[in-house]
Write a structure and sequence with these properties.
Strand content: 15-25%
Radius of gyration: 20 Å
Structural class: alpha/beta
Distance between the termini: 38 Å
Helix content: 10-25%
Number of helices: 6
Number of strands: 11
Strand order of the largest sheet: 4-5-6-8-10-11
Largest sheet: 6 strands, parallel
Amino acid sequence: KDRNTIIDGTCVQDDILVHVPQLHSFTFYINTYIEIDGLSHDLSREHIQQTLINIGQQNASCIVNYLSRCSVTCSIFCLPIAFNYLEYLGTVFPNIVFNYVTYLVVDDGDAFRHEIFVRFARSFPILKYLCIYNDEPQGSGDLTLSSGHTQSFSIIEYSHLTLLDVSSSDKDYLEQFLNETKAYVSCLTELEVSHRDLKTVTKNFTREETRRNCAKVKQLNTAQPLDNSQDFYHYFPSL
């Protein structure tokens, strides 16, 4: 953080590789966050990719994610990525399977639709920890059809997900994971969430569609005190 330039292939060469001429291999994942107020040009993924090729990193890749009009993140990494952590992924990323990533932070200025969660599940097959930053609601297109009937979704299965943090996101993303018609999270044991959103999505802990994905939660982290109602404890029998 607190840089005014993105770390690209040129920076890797000038700031790192030039100082270690005997280095035979270099495995890296570097994420840069910058404020772009006053920046006179867009940051191009193609340009950053070319700077990696220019230093002999043909197997490296990059992701550029505009979080807002004022901020952007850029990740550069060698392939296959050997690290278990990836942060600030948005709606645009390459078609890569991240076989070692277990901890993922996603953030974007645009809403995450159901289809992007399908991609997340396919691209991160052993994901265990997911943190979502997004205050944009998914929108009516992801919730209901114009006729008023419930929209049909492909059910996304997260076979290894144990921790979900939606405490800094719109309630639609809690709905996305708790509603069994949209997702199945058989190993979910820890949930970080707004207590108000949890009550809304579960309809005060009475809604059947969200009951199954709450059944194994052993730790519930909220900023507000938890309910002491009978419905609440029936909803979370593992607490």
